[in-house]
Amino acid sequence: MSDALIEVRGLTVGYADQVLLEGASFDVARGDVFVILGGSGCGKSTLLRYLIGLETPLSGHISIAGVGAPRLEGAAPEYGVMFQSGALFSSMTVGDNVGFALQEWTDLPAEAITAIVRAKLALVGLEGAEDKLPAELSGGMRKRAAIARAMAFEPSLIFLDEPSAGLDPVSAAELDDLINALNRGLGLTVVMVTHELESIFKVGKNCIMLDKASRSIIASGSPQELKATNRDPRVQQFFHREAGRR
Amino acid sequence: MTREAGDDAPEIFGDRVSRIAGFLPQFTWRVEKEPHGLRIDVAGDLTIDEAPALWKRVTELSARVTSGERVQIDNSGVQTIDGACMALLVHLRSELKARRVHCEFTGGSPAVRRLVELYGGRRRPKPRRRRHARNAIEQVGDATAALFGEVMSVLDFFGELLHAGWASLKHPRSMNFRDIALTMERAGADAAPIVMLINFLIGFVMAYQSALQLKQFGANIYVADLVGLSMTRELGPLMTAIIVCGRTGAAFAAELGTMKVSEEVDALRTLGFMPLRYLVLPRILGLLLVAPLLTLLADTVGIAGGVVVGALSLDITPLAYWNQTLRVVHAWDVFSGALKSMVFASAIALIACQQGLATSGGAEGVGRRTTAAVVSILFALILLDAVFTVLFGALGL
Predict the structure, then answer these.
(1) How many angstroms separate the CA atoms of B358 and B146, rounded?
(2) Burial of B109 per CB tally in 10 Å (0-12, 13-18, 19+)
(3) Which one of B252, B270, B278 makes the best mutation probe of the A interface by having the most chain A beta carbons within 10 Å?
(4) Dist. CA B322–CA B305, nearest whole Å
(5) Taking CA A173 as the corner, what is the angle to CA A171 and CA A175, rounded to the nearest 5 degrees?
(6) Burial level of A55, CB count in 10 A (0-12/13-18/19+)?
(7) Residue ranges per domain, chain A?
(8) Among residues B99, B82, B84, which one has the least CA distance to residue B45?
(9) Which pLDDT score, from 0 to 100, does residue B21 have?
(10) Residue A150: closest CA among A191, A184, A200, A185
């Protein structure tokens, strides 16, 4: 697929003593909302860390169009990342958090950065929160602020780790709407990890499902298609919220 | 039974009676011999208050039963049972099964049966894996290997840091000046009062103790030599470093450790920053700049402590004391102390930041790494001090 934004080939993920995923290959198309699914402990968030470039693959390779292997540090960010807990810098205000990369990597004057920060916060529905400290925000607001920070450098690709985990239903739904708006309005490619069924159907265009026992991708396709046609009991259990056998 | 006695007792005795009742179980536990083993009739109310009494009976029974016997636990008489007591009964069953004693639950109301089911009383207990006990040699070996691993990781870190430092020198604009200033304020200015207080007392005590001896020889004035030289060459830098270790070393380790476990360090990386360059380098530089200043302060107040003792109990005027100090303490003594303090400061910041960034696993991990950082730093300080002493001695400095 030449249109793929991210190409993953034969990727093995895990730690020295424990392999979580073996020989995984998949593509993420440009403009996709790509969801990584699976039960707890199957390595979803770990896989995301490899895609971002926080970890070095045990084997296989990842290629992001225009970047090559995911690369961090020493250069302006090519893509945005929102961590599960938000991971806002607790010693800085929300505004400084959002404008942080801009201050470092551009020659923009302070007023211009302030204007951009204000616009990014408006985008995620946090107008006027510039001067608050992260500790003063609720869980949902913190995640929104983290998305604003991830969006600060105009990335065409954004990674989200469990955006709606731990949020009340209303905040979770608002966050889903935000993801949809970013994807449709700005053409942003989204790669996210989640296990919230509603969220998966509301925003997900394509997904892969990981399995802990077989350490592989057991299904891929659109969520609707997987729910309707996939006969794998593990996939059906997931999509129908059935308890597995103990 | 006791319970009824408690219920019937007049109000004024209520408290005492219920306290006595606390010692008497609210349940009965009858063990009967059967042809193939034992039957236990459990009856009454089993709540968490009864758990200690129940546990005693469970362990007694468990010790009594031998392999091949059958044990039947009959819950027919149980009025109520809570999770804690059920857990003890299920534990008894698993223990017995592990010793090849057949054990089963019988009888009981539907509610009791449901609880048996929920707590896994019907499931086949998983054989527990015995943990292999490690002998002394193995433990010493592991600890030694771990120590070497730690030392190697500090050296690794040092290497990476030099690399990052070189990169920063080439692009000085990318330096995090904010954190340098912040470190200098927090580790330097804020530490001044405690550094002054402690070093004044050190100088004071040292002068006082040595005066007691030197007085006997009429060598009062040599107190100034002793205090002046040992403060500038040895105690000033070392005491300051120990204070800085406790204040700033612990703070660095805890701060970076918390940033690590809350994914802030990862977030920093995704925004294009190198943690070593952005977080560690400014802390090391900041500390490197303030440590000699703190040490000079320590030298000064330490000597001042000596002056006070001289004036109060040795009849040495401050001016005479000062002149004597100037005569024996040379520029090199002060300078070598400052030099030492810079090496100490690098060790403090390096180890603290390395330990902080190696943190994993939540609040407990932060505590563990902070402790490890402070202990390693203290060890390193004493070691470095010994090296300096030997080195300066060998070079005749």
Answers:
(1) 14
(2) middle
(3) B270
(4) 12
(5) 70
(6) middle
(7) 86-154
(8) B82
(9) 54
(10) A191
Contact yes or no for B264 and A77 at CB 8 A:
no
Instruction: Determine contact: A77 vs chain B, CB below 8 A.
Output: yes
Give the number of other CB atoms < 10 A from CB of residue B156: 11
Least confident span in A53-57, B93-97, B126-130, B319-323: B126-130
Residue ranges of alpha helices (H) inside B171-191 are: 177-183
Q: For Cα atoms A200, A94, B363, give the angle at the middle one, nearest 5 degrees.
A: 75
Query: Is residue B368's pLDDT more than 90?
Result: yes
Cβ distance B296 to B338 under 8 Å? yes
Which residue does chain B place closest to A87, by CA atoms?
A: B264
**Alpha carbon of residue B157 to chain centroid:** 23
Of residues A77, A84, A104, nearest to B270 (C-beta) = A77
Burial B293-322 (b: 16+ CB within 10 A, else e): bbbbbbbbbbbbbbbbbbeeebebeeebbb
| A89 chain-B contacts, CB cut-off 8 A | 264, 267-268
Sort out which chain B residues have CB atoms less than 8 A from A16's CB and list them: none
Summarised one tens digit per residue, pLDDT across range B174-199 is 778 888 999 999 999 999 999 999 99
pLDDT of residue B243: 95
**ipTM of the predicted assembly exceeds 0.90:** no
Contact B272 A77 (CB under 8 A): yes
Beta bridge partners of A82: A160
Cα(A89)–Cα(B138) distance, integer angstroms: 43
**Among candidates A54, A74, A85 on the partner chain, residue whose Cβ is nearest the Cβ of B274:** A74
Segment B371-386, tens digit of pLDDT: 999 999 999 999 999 9
Tell how strand A189-193 and strand A206-211 pair up: unpaired
Pairing of β A80-82 and β A157-161:
parallel
> What DSSP line would sit under B322-363, residue for residue?
HHHHHHH--HHHHHHHHHHHHHHHHHHHHHHHHHHHT--SHH
A63-77, A132-146, A228-242, B31-45: range with lowest mean pLDDT: A63-77
Q: What are phi and psi of A220, to 5 degrees?
A: -150, 155
Terminal CA-CA length for chain A: 40
Q: How far apart are CA A90 and CA A92, in angstroms?
A: 6
Yes or no: say if A220 and A209 are a contact pair by the CB < 8 Å rule: yes
Helix axes B192-216, B222-230, angle to 10 degrees: 140
* Degrees, nearest 5: CA angle A46-A52-A54: 70
Cβ–Cβ gap B271/A101 under 8 Å? yes
A76/B272 Cβ within 8 A: yes
State chain B's mean pLDDT as an integer: 86
Q: Return the residue matching tokens 């780790």.
A: A161
